[in-house]
Amino acid sequence: MITAIVVALVAIIAVLLVAAGASVRVLREYERAVVFRMGRLVATKGPGLVLLVPAIDRMVRVSLRTVTLNVPPQDVITRDNVPARVDAVVYFRVVDPNCAVVQVESFLKATSQIAQTTLRSVLGKVDLDSLLSEREELNEELQKIIDDQTEPWGVKVTTVEIKDVGIPQAMQKAMARQAEAERERRAKVINAEGEFQAAARLSQAADVISVNPATMQLRYLQTLSEIGINQNTTVVFPLPIDLVKPLLEATKTETPQAALDKGANGTTPLLGEPREREPQGR
Question: How far is residue 166 CA from its own chain's centroid?
């Protein structure tokens, strides 16, 4: 008799322990419990200690932390008919656990699918240049569209980032040639602008020098000092035309008789020196 009572007590204690274990849950700070009682939604509980009615209540655990979802690479045809392979990353979190459990079967899978379809539809409406250069605007547009779609599920999409854009090898070579031609065009334009500005400055400098001719002599002296710093063995010094011009004029005004005398004697008579006249025949 005593043995039967002890066995019964042990069985009762075991049942109570099992029931207590089934009715007590401990949730972390970032977790919430969506409780169903006889199939009907009761409330959202947590974090901390959560008590359930054994065999009646059922709990679905939901995490409120931000989820990083990698969108698989998607084949996209841009507006200018260029094939591209684009992948992205989506950051979202659950803001309403009840809707995340009741309104959709799997909010993670649903968010992934809506992100893939939105990525293909949005990027298919832009050309390749916009896809490569206007990523911030495209990211904002993708985030707004995906967030509007997931709002009824209690999911908040915070950020969408396009990670990589893959284009065919032939298109990459064409873009490289285009970029090289553009750089050459800019270099030629900059060189032409530099020549134009230099010509304008030289014209202004010539106007300043023409007022005072001594300025040219100072420039010559400065050039000599700059050449002397390099310790060159050969010095090329520009000779002003003003110094050579009197000699050229003297050569042009030389008489034919002086030229003959110079050819006969090998010398040119000095200015003011009397010349011997040949005796005239009778």
Answer: 17
